[in-house]
Amino acid sequence: GAVVSQHPSWVICKSGTSVKIECRSLDFQATTMFWYRQFPKQSLMLMATSNEGSKATYEQGVEKDKFLINHASLTLSTLTVTSAHPEDSSFYICSARDNRGRTDTQYFGPGTRLTVL
Amino acid sequence: LAKTTQPISMDSYEGQEVNITCSHNNIATNDYITWYQQFPSQGPRFIIQGYKTKVTNEVASLFIPADRKSSTLSLPRVSLSDTAVYYCLVTSNTGKLIFGQGTTLQVKP
Question: Cβ contact (<8 Å) for A108 and B36?
Fold first, then answer.
């Protein structure tokens, strides 16, 4: 399957600072990427859809000014958590959509653990 | 987006075949069914995807009846390392995936 990477794999920051997480599709181009967050013992929650060259589409209840998404190239999407607070601590996971062939499959990154102190 | 329903948990023993069934009554004509595996603190890993009938790869089989309102993931001869959460998802033309609770599979020695 296709490979998606995330960087960093974990980050600890102070309250009020901003943190940027990168998501890269390594062996295919992805016009669409997705960002999820996952709290302990819970399922993944879709935050937003990132489209290359256009504005991201946010799910209901997700603050677009707090979670800035940029999809500047066909292999890179970034999520910036602005003015992070302890309640933003979570596991953030991205996925890249591979719809080159007859099927339509999302491949996920390994995730980024964010801890806000 | 079609909602999926699957058992919250299942237990099995090493060497057994495990079948996890998922219902997706509102699946649309162009939707695919995709299964993922997730270990703690890792992103979901793609297992298998299908549209109808049977699909098999090196790790699993996926059975989809003619009405496509359900699907069954079959894991042959599970081992302890197959202990994980398994998610059944329906992929629509928007590409969006809405995760349910998944099925926590516990494989015992």
Answer: yes
B/e letters for B40-59, b = 16+ CB within 10 Å, e = fewer, are: eeebbbbbbbbbeeebeeee
Sheet holding A76-81, edge to edge: A4-7, A19-25, A76-81, A67-73
Residues from chain B contacting residue A97 (CB–CB below 8 Å): 95
Q: How close is the nearest chain A Cα to the Cα of B13, in Å?
A: 23
Q: How large is the average pLDDT for residues A69-84?
A: 94
Type of residue at B103: T
Residue B101: list chain A partners with CB under 8 A. 43
DSSP assignment, residue B5? B
What does the pLDDT look like over A3-16, one tens digit per residue?
Answer: 999 999 999 999 99
Q: How confident is the model at residue B94 (pLDDT cuts 50, 70, 90)?
A: confident
Candidates A115, A116, A111, A117; CA nearest to A8 is A111
Average pLDDT, chain B: 94
Please give the backbone phi and psi of residue A86, each rounded to the nearest 5 degrees, phi first: -50, -35
